[in-house]
Amino acid sequence: MIELKVERMTCGGCAATVRAAVAEVAPKARMEIEIATGTLRVEGEVDESRVRAAIEQAGYGIA
Known about the structure:
Elements: E1 2-7, H1 12-25, E2 30-34, E3 39-43, H2 48-57, E4 61-62
Antiparallel strand pairs: 1-3, 1-4, 2-3
Helix pairs in contact: 1-2
Domain HMA: 1-63
Protein name: Copper chaperone
GO molecular function: metal ion binding
């Protein structure tokens, strides 16, 4: 499991964008997003560097 703090993810729309971006690089992964804390947890066979890149490409930062 990886856990990331996603910067500027402040609403449901942001969370949906992040979820879609991660799903592109890790389609079988299970995700949990906490908007209040900006936390993303991803479980399954995932490449953390690809997840980070997908989030950044979607316009969000990672703390």
